[in-house]
Every structure is written in C-alpha cells, then in structure tokens.
Amino acid sequence: xxxxxxxxxxxxxxxxxxxxxxxxxxxxxxxxxxxxxxxxxxxxxxxxxxxxxxxxxxxxxxxxxxxxxxxxxxxxxxxxxxxxxxxxxxxxxxxxxxxxxxxxxxxxxxxxxxxxxxxxxxxxxxxxxxxxxxxxxxxxxxxxxxxxxxxxxxxxxxxxxxxxxxxxxxxxxxxxxxxxxxxxxxxxxxxxxxxxxxxxxxxxxxxxxxxxxxxxxxxxxxxxxxxxxxxxxxxxxxxxxxxxxxxxxxxxxxxxxxxxxxxxxxxxxxxxxxxxxxxxxxxxxxxxx
Length: 289
What we know:
The chain starts with 11 loop residues before the first helix and ends with a helix. It has a domain at about 10-55 and about 70-135. The protein contains 14 helices and six strands.
C-alpha cells in the first residue's frame, strides 16, 4: 500500500494450486476471481528471493564491506511470479505483413496481456485444443512426494531425540536446504565456506533471512504437532507463506497455518496480519469512499 492503493499480488503458488485442478470450469472461475482481485500484480518466487536473502545475510552477519543487493520483490504477470521472461506477452513486430509501430505494439500488449495472463494462471488450454495441451507447472508438483518423505524422515529423527533438540534440527535442515547457493555466495564475498556451518553463525544467518526463518518455523511448528500428518500440499503452502509472511502486510491462509503462525508470534515478528478470514481484510481496508 505504498501509494495508498491496496495490492493483492499473486505468487507462483497460486499458479501451481490452480493448475492442480482437473476441473477446467473451476480453474476458469478461480482465475476470474484472482484476476479481479490481483490484476497483474505478482510477487517474486523463492528462487529469486532466497539468493538475495543469502547474500544480504552474509554481508550483515559477517559485517562485510560489500554493497547490499537490490531486489524487485513485486512486479507484474507470470513472468515476474516465475522469474521467466518468456511468460510475458510481447506484441509481434508485424501483423498480416504490416509492420506495427511502437505505439501500436504497446496498445496490443495492453489489450492482449491480461487474456494471455489468464490462460497461464488458469492452465487453460488454447481454444480448439485438448486439455492435454494446457500449461501445468509440473516441477513443484514433482517435489511434493519428496518433501513429504523428507519431513517424515526428519520426524523419525525427532522421535528418537529429546524434544529440546527439535529447534537445532530445524535450523540445521534449513541451512542444509540452501547450502549450495550459500557456499557459492560466500566464496564470491570472500567468506570461508566452513564458517557457514559453525554453530555460532548458522542461527544468526537464518535469522537474517526472513523467508528462510519463516520456512524453518513453519516446519518446526508442524513437526511439533506429530498428530498432523505431512501432506503433499504442505510444500506449496510453506513455500508461499515463507515469502508472504515477512514481505506482505496481510496474509490470508487456512486456519491451521494461521493459528500456528499467530500462536508462535511469527506474524508479530514481521508486523503482518495473518488470518483465515477475508472479512479481516475487508475490516482493515475500511468502507469504500
């Protein structure tokens, strides 16, 4: 709301969740609702945010004399949400043998881009083509089962150890998950890779990376509730919340995640309203002028 205008940016998670549905009518209706609320506003994906956080954290924790990198967290269209420029509609240079002026291309992009975006967001097959041709972002879907298996494996460790060890395990696994890019960034900045895993540095580094700290806390809080089984959808939820909670003013999510985030004061840490109720958003915005 920097300019007084509320923005409801979509994330890569919205594309993935919508694409999971096999019901084309449901996808179309969801897309219409999301486009009506969010327009073209989007938030950057984890594979853009995390490398930025890593470099920033290294500079801060090790007090390096290096420039803090910039980040365009918010942008427009699927191209920004996925960090894939190829997903942005670009007007052709010519139409039916006639070269288009720059002004005509901009007008065409303004007209076509929202329709193009709706096709990508809704995983809608091109008109006249079978459903099998629709765009589905499969990569993260393929990670679902592996994520559940990994969390169940960690749960197995936790069962054999005192519960007091759970925070240490969560911090260690958070660092392990990003160790490769962290080492690469450390080497570029002149930090010895072994310094990353020294006990006094690991927690400080994670705490200086908002999305990684939230991701770690979400896994921690769910691991502390063994009666709640890990499910494939948890990966998408955690991936989305890890970015949204520290970087958005308001986050609407399901009751379970909202409850554990608020009870653990994770939302309070970032002064973010995390709620399962859309009415809370309406109340926050106030009556229309």
